[in-house]
Amino acid sequence: MVPTRKATLARKAPQRHLNSASANPAVAQRAFESPLTEDMLTRFDSRAATYDRENRFFDQDFEELRAAKYLILPVPSEFGGPGLSLAEVCREQRRLAYFAPATALAVNMHLYWVGIAADLWRRGDTSLEWMLRDAAAGEIFAAGHAESGNDIPVLLSSCKAERVEGGYRFTGRKQFGSLTPVWTRLGLHGMEISNASQPRIVHAFMPRDSSGYIIKETWDVLGMRATRSDDTVLENVFVPDRFIARIVPAGGAGIDAFVLSIFAWALMGFGNIYYGLAKRALDKTIAAAKSKHSLAVSRTMAYHPELQHAIAQMVIEMESIGPHLDRIADDWSNGVDHGAEWPAKIFAAKYRAVEGSWRVVDLGLDIAGGAGIFRSLGYERLLRDARLGRIHPANAFLTHEVVAKTALGISLDEQPRWG
């Protein structure tokens, strides 16, 4: 992945410092009253199609979630939040995504930063405590990781980071950040190459009132349109030291507790969101099959053997996705020590979730038939949204590379040699 360095993650002894914050199984078992009321979810559902059609930010949903304190779910009680674990937040996101997947995806970008800070804080690492205080005070965090031509986000960067007095300056272009109209802290990273043989990745949070950046309104896309993930162009933007989160080696060698937590919170969130979307598609398909008629069938299409076969395939997919996501999120939340295998486990769970969810939604369109392509039915939006799950990091190429190298005991930074 990075030809200039050897990674340290391949088949090492278990590393407890890479694990999640809490080693207390009770964290994932306590009672919690969800802020997502049925009335709220019904309203989110009613607005989703309009947001998508108009390619408009989910402003009403966002304000409702903010007012309900949904955006501080991971904030520990010491800072005024309920202190939900990764597993608990994933379950809430799954519920939200069933009704409004784009809304869930966008707020995931904020929740995962807050969750990372909370996990580290519970482990005794107070370096990001300021994030918990900011989140409790209403600051909104977004992700600025995606870059054109960089298929290994977080570990590498085409954005330049340069050390200057009092902080770093960043130059580059960030994409797919979500929450563009409302973020107040943009989480980003850049490559610092003052020592060309030992490049480093600088992780930082850029305040909204910084100078030297431009937001380009580029978001007019296939699916998840309500997230408003416009591009952010950085032009020598200064970020002071107090907003520098980590400086780590480039590539797999830089996967410390902070970077691994990014993978866990972001990717497990993605997986659960697309699983929730697929559950909605399955329920819509079953309901439609029970009322769908054909001149060639004396009863509803629910009695057609091939339709039953397709429904069975959808259910089987769903039965294997949910438990996989739950197991990995619960292991993380309860401090299970998977050591150097954590990246592979996280990537595999996200990959399995989005690939399976896409198959479920695609099969549902086969069953819906021609009616499914009309926007009024609501299925074509689910289809477009579901397809984006396979594009979200980590993509299929990177997932297979990480999983295979971990299994084979090969450094994540090892490059193939031909001839």
Write the layout of secondary structure elements.
Blueprint: H1 38-54, H2 59-67, H3 86-99, H4 101-122, H5 129-136, E1 141-144, E2 160-164, E3 167-174, E4 185-192, E5 200-207, E6 213-216, E7 231-240, E8 244-249, H6 257-291, H7 305-333, H8 342-368, H9 379-388, H10 396-408
Parallel strand pairs: 1-4
Antiparallel strand pairs: 2-3, 3-7, 4-5, 5-8, 6-7
Helix pairs in contact: 3-4, 3-6, 4-5, 4-6, 6-7, 6-8, 6-9, 7-8, 8-9, 8-10
In short:
The chain is α+β, with helices and mostly antiparallel strands and 419 residues long.
Verbal overview:
The structure is a single chain. This protein is an alpha+beta fold and 419 residues long. It has a domain at 254-408: Butyryl-CoA Dehydrogenase, subunit A, domain 3 (Up-down Bundle), CATH 1.20.140. It has helices at residues 38-54, 59-67, 86-99, 101-122, 129-136, 257-291, 305-333, 342-368, 379-388, 396-408; strands at residues 141-144, 160-164, 167-174, 185-192, 200-207, 213-216, 231-240, 244-249. The strands form 2 sheets. Strands 1-4-5-8 form a 4-stranded mixed β-sheet, with helices on one face. A 4-stranded antiparallel β-sheet has the order 2-3-7-6, with no helix packed on it. The longest helix is centred in the middle third of the chain and has 35 residues, at 257-291. The chain is globular, with a radius of gyration of 22 Å.
